[in-house]
Design goal:
Four copies of one chain form a homotetramer. The first copy, chain A, contains 13 helices and 15 strands. With 337 residues, chain A is of the alpha/beta class. In chain A, the strands form two sheets. Chain A has an eight-stranded mixed β-sheet, with helices on both faces. A seven-stranded mixed β-sheet of chain A has the order 10-11-9-12-15-14-13. Helices cover 35% and strands 21% of the residues of chain A. In chain A, helix 1 packs across helix 13, helix 7 runs parallel beside helix 13 and helix 8 packs parallel to helix 10. Chains in contact: A-B, A-C, A-D, B-C, B-D, C-D. The interface between A and B is large, with 38 and 38 residues.
Chain lengths: 337, 337, 337, 337
């Protein structure tokens, strides 16, 4: 059994990681840590875990975790991850970092996260962990930068159409809607129930920090400068992202043909489902690691709808998928319920 | 007191009309009708109305309603309205029709509503009831085609920027999100709580019947062909529409300047509020007749957020605003709580 | 115009008070205060108030508020109110306190609120502000202890049946369900959307601080010791309380007769509606000052359902009703929308 | 592999059954049927099942189903089940019926379900499928009457305290709150999102058809007449039941001791968890087959909180648990995710 440590176990992503590893046939949790008053059973923090996982969650001790684990998931805020990643790597551990710290080039990171990326050596070696882009690199990586939730939904929604040159990349408009767990498990007035419930809002219009992540990855695959227009919205649901993506077509293609392009592109992917006839909805993917994609062509415009569970394919599930790839496990292990 | 009849009183729009007229100082309800098993007090159908309005709701009898009323609101499904409108007009009544039957030119109507507009005479005389476009016409009208909910939010969001030639009109992308009352008060599996709750979906992608209504009205004010790209989405809230509108700018302008254009444009409007510093949210407008608009410029793109309560400014409130204009009442009467 | 000050204007109750006074024909807001970083227009804190009230909210200055106001509403946490109440009273002002500080006898307060009641002089003169118990006392009062939200729903649900000796008072079981605004406007993990949404929980089982308030008031009207069993529950709605009350009957009575007792008892009350045929639901009373009550007799048990909007009849609306009574205004002024 | 047929596969319970069997290591779905326009893949009806189960759902043909299946789950409305159960039994099949048709004695059924129980022979042999009462009987049964959702939560909440004579059984008051899937997957105005959302209501006060089911089962274990007072409430969540149960104690016992009684009673039960320190909440059990129970003693009253997922432990999960017991499978197989 692969011995797993989860740092930041008391957030929503941490909770999902615990659930996935608890049902994994080839990995088991040996360490849970978080900022915490006193050592506490994780099932006392998340009572739904009672009987599934009773490991005690403690304050982080890097050496102790390194000794007891083979692979560490870091579910920490950005800026915090890069303090610990070098230590775990030096101790010879595999690391999957769910923060943004190793996703962007140093200059871009500094601009969008208002912080210095202080671990340039490991940044160079980090692999962006979207299996649908390049799972060979993931397989060989020691450090995975696990993608953001919005970028996962957007990049998977765009990959086939931009990679194959069917749409222009200079005017991609992305209108995303997310559930509230995307903001993390924390006390904050704007996340309070009466502030969110029966409400809808746009926020960080074209200034959200996930925008450069999408630009960077789409630029890599298209070899062109990409600068999406991106408006995220908060909606009163717990989980799920629905991204509606508007692209100008470069050639004449109808809905059926475009769907066929997508289906072919993702043919062998275990966690991307391309809809036909019917557009995907958030509830189709909640509690799953799937990204569901539907396409519509209308005139010269392609309208793509892409849905994920922000905590699973958008975070913990994709992290576990990356672990499976890194460790030569069945890629679906632990991810099908 | 102006004597008011409401036909279709048992829907959500009918309920809101009853509430508004019940608090109006110069109008009172004399007739309520609907498809109904037996005459029933409206407060037995909507118990929240108890003490506010106890008028009995009956099956429609056009002559009886005509005798007892000066002005009739029709809150009926499209195709049904145009059966009754000619009769009420012939009886010399003022009519405010909340269906789509008198909003579009005959050919367009037929194409999008899959039905013949059979009342071409009155169609010619009908005035599209968006006060912010032309309240003089409304003032003189006998028949008002009350705008759709999506079009109200979209047209008001676009009017200043397109009328003043600041943005291109050939690539307007509109991503709208609506609450569930927009679909009407009815038994339908897709509207059932567990189907809607914890879910998000796009529907009728670029094929929604409100698209030609926006195109038509924006074409009128710009004297150009307009063909928006329009994706409506259903979100689990009771009331409210948030439309996010993406337009390409034709000239160099920043957020502050654009906000100033909007503010100037709507300076004298009693029910349009232009936000500064902060984008509008649905809860700012729920239960009000306001349309709140916020603007953002990012590069060559203007991103407009426009919020209304779909049942008030998107239906009953705007209808009452039109009544106030037609009858030379204070335009805000009955609409401020 | 009566000049009104609201202390604690930035909470949900404060917001409702502002709305009510803004539409009141005989009172107007001259002062808003709260713990606040810098003076801020209340409409910048609650954008829905834009155009209704643009008074600036400041840090509290008791003397300044006393100079500019005739009557002060205190929407403050318990323990805090009793610091300011004596000062406003000494300055000759009428005070309506929405905290628990003046509701209970000193010993009971100390036990349930874990704090000393330090203003015993004024405590003696304070009048419990439930108009349905004794509006003459309210009319003559200088200081009102505005009732708690749960107690309002429970006491009104019990008054007729216990006052007339129809049910036993030694085994009253109260199972209440509340919306989340009842917990106040604040940052707290247990109030965060994903923690509350799709969840139900009981809390403070038979230990909630509103229990002695109900006991005290029912004891006063029955002249008997009352000790209810009280379980509050949190449900994912913004507003509303539904209390289900179980009482053992002392005599043979059927549902119709009991309803008739209730109807007679509340005949002249402007804000209590007794349902027949149908039980009240939370949506019937949301955004209103009504308490809706329905009764069922089953064998020797009476089951009473009592619904209020916790922020209106359970707080701000009742406070305004008390103001109307104290100032000889029409009791419904400002409270009907 | 045990071959499974599910009749009534297009309801919420059917959907959950498909999910459970799809992950079961010793059972697989060979037949799905329902009232349906034309044969349709179940994953086209429930897109979340795509990739998990693509069996085609057809109109029911009893003989065909009997040929292809070893065990049949009937997820049908009451009155309908008893038409098919005799045929499947005659064909030698094991049957788990999720309707109420075989739960009650004939006279009681007739009174509460307003229909004749027409299959008295099999009624005699049917075993009430609550494993915590008597799993030996279930093990030997050919026909299981799977318990109702409310009764499961209530009976499990009461069993230890009433069986051991700690509380009186003549004054059990049960206040239950349920999510909306409990009403089934169907088009109905009262289930429409805007009618349920932001609302709370009691319904069928002490007249709900699940009341006699609880009475009957508690009478069996206590050998006393039981007549609970039962008020169900509808709350705006998709899934979950929380029952708050009030019982008069017959002897002096404190919370800790009572919790210890419960813990001992359910010690060996795989799907009952007794909380300590903290009361259970609905989210602890959603998507699981657990019943979580918390107890509080206050004076002479025991207050029990019992939570289940109405679709899992309250329906499909318990049905699968019964299948596991009938077929000598591990009782937890397919039920842990």
């Amino acid at each position: 059994m692969l011995k797993i440590g989860i740092v930041g176990a008391t957030g929503y992503t941490g909770e999902e990681l615990v659930k996935i590893i608890a049902r994994h046939s080839k990995a088991s949790i040996t360490s849970l840590s978080a900022i915490i008053d006193k050592p506490t059973k994780i099932s006392d923090i998340f009572p739904s875990l009672t009987g599934k996982c009773d490991v005690v969650c403690k304050e982080l001790d890097v050496d102790e975790v390194s000794k007891s684990c083979d692979l560490i998931f870091l579910a920490l805020p950005h800026r915090v991850s890069m303090k610990y990643v070098p230590q775990f790597l030096k101790n010879g551990k595999k690391v999957i970092d769910l923060s943004a710290d190793y996703r962007l080039s140093a200059g871009i990171y500094e601009k969008w996260y208002d912080a210095q990326q202080t671990d340039s050596n490991n940044l160079k070696e980090a692999v962006y962990g979207l299996p649908e882009i390049d799972r060979d690199k993931i397989n060989k990586a020691q450090l995975i930068a696990n993608p953001g939730c919005y970028p996962t939904s957007i990049i998977l929604g765009c990959l086939p159409i931009v990679k194959q040159g069917i749409a222009k990349v200079d005017t991609i408009i992305v209108d995303s809607k997310t559930g509230v767990t995307g903001a993390g498990r924390k006390a904050a007035l704007p996340l309070s129930f009466p502030e969110v419930n029966e409400n809808l809002k746009a926020y960080k219009v074209n200034t959200h920090q996930h925008k450069p992540e999408v630009n960077q990855e789409l630029a890599k695959v298209t070899k062109k400068v990409v600068d999406i227009v991106f408006t995220p919205h908060l909606v009163p649901i717990n989980r799920g992202i629905l991204s509606t993506i508007y692209l100008k077509l470069k050639k004449d293609i109808d809905t059926k043909e475009l769907a066929s392009v997508y289906r072919k592109f993702y043919r062998t992917e275990p966690f991307v489902r391309v809809s036909s006839d019917r557009l995907p909805e958030v509830r189709d993917v909640v509690n799953t690691n799937y990204c569901d994609i539907g396409v519509t062509v209308s005139g010269s415009m392609a309208i793509i709808v892409s849905c994920i569970d922000n905590l699973i394919k958008g975070a913990a599930g994709q992290a576990a998928q990356n672990m499976n790839i890194m460790c030569n496990f069945d890629e679906k292990e632990g991810l099908i319920t």
